[in-house]
């Protein structure tokens, strides 16, 4: 799984998502993250086919939405996603949110898909420690990834530590907090020090935390910039300064209190 991926949340189906994904692939991204609820899987699949890059060089992730959770309904939802993407397999399939009373049956469906070779890896998204503990109690296959909101205002240290102990890879969605963090004074100061953009500093911080990151943009210049994070390294002190920005503050919904 590449450390840097390309997210397509709220990227419109059709020309916008096709051109964005093709641009990302053209500029070196090899991991694309979509979901059934994003309603752009068809465009993602089309962009993959038009990219000119062999399928085996790409890492494609999608997710089962909450209303489709449950054993049989998840298997049906997976087939719908496969038909829209027009792919022979998915690299990573995730449970999008921990729907109470449903996610364990959903996980059994993911295990079946994994054992059958239809997906190369399975995981979860927005799971807290107690959700993971509950799932691990009966799981035959351990989740390989937990994709969560993660950024300097929400460092999720306890969850990160737990996932490391369990061998579950943490992945960051909304790594820039919907753009809010690029004006954070400490981040701006460090961007000048390293001669990088604020976004590049934050994404580099993700990597040095051993967290996979999937920034989103429909702007080709920013798509290129966001990928240019492998030629510098933040010092230990600067890593600590960014960690100190934590407010345990979410931009998105609370995984313990959502109603969708």
UniProtKB/TrEMBL annotation:
<dbReference type="InterPro" id="IPR018170">
    <property type="entry name" value="Aldo/ket_reductase_CS"/>
</dbReference>
<comment type="similarity">
    <text>Belongs to the aldo/keto reductase family.</text>
</comment>
<feature type="domain" description="NADP-dependent oxidoreductase">
    <location>
        <begin position="5"/>
        <end position="246"/>
    </location>
</feature>
<dbReference type="InterPro" id="IPR020471">
    <property type="entry name" value="AKR"/>
</dbReference>
<dbReference type="InterPro" id="IPR044500">
    <property type="entry name" value="AKR5G"/>
</dbReference>
<dbReference type="InterPro" id="IPR036812">
    <property type="entry name" value="NAD(P)_OxRdtase_dom_sf"/>
</dbReference>
<dbReference type="Pfam" id="PF00248">
    <property type="entry name" value="Aldo_ket_red"/>
</dbReference>
<keyword id="KW-0521">NADP</keyword>
<protein>
    <submittedName>
        <fullName>Aldo/keto reductase</fullName>
    </submittedName>
</protein>
<dbReference type="InterPro" id="IPR023210">
    <property type="entry name" value="NADP_OxRdtase_dom"/>
</dbReference>
<keyword id="KW-0560">Oxidoreductase</keyword>
């Amino acid at each position: 799984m590449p450390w840097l991926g390309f997210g397509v949340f709220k990227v419109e189906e059709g020309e916008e998502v096709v051109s964005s994904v093709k641009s990302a692939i053209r500029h070196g991204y090899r991991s694309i993250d979509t979901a059934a609820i994003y309603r752009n899987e068809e465009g993602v699949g089309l962009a993959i086919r038009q990219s000119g890059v062999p399928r085996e060089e790409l890492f494609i992730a999608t997710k089962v939405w909450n209303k489709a959770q449950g054993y049989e309904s998840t298997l049906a939802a997976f087939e719908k996603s496969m038909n829209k993407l027009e792919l022979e397999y998915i690299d990573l399939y995730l449970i999008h949110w921990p729907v109470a009373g449903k996610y364990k049956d959903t996980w059994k469906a993911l295990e079946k898909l994994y054992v059958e070779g239809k997906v190369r890896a399975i995981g979860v998204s927005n799971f807290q420690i107690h959700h993971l503990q509950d799932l691990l109690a009966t799981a035959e296959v351990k989740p390989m990834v937990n994709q969560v909101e993660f950024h300097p205002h929400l460092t999720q240290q306890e969850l990160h530590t737990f996932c490391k102990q369990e061998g579950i890879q943490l992945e960051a969605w909304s790594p820039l907090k919907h753009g809010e963090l690029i004006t954070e004074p400490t981040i701006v100061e460090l961007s000048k020090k390293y001669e990088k953009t604020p976004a590049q500093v934050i994404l580099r911080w993700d990597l040095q935390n051993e967290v996979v990151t999937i920034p989103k943009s429909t702007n080709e210049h920013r798509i290129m910039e966001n990928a240019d994070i492998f030629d510098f390294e933040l010092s230990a002190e600067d890593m600590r300064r960014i960690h100190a920005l934590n407010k345990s503050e979410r931009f998105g919904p609370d995984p313990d209190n959502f109603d969708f």
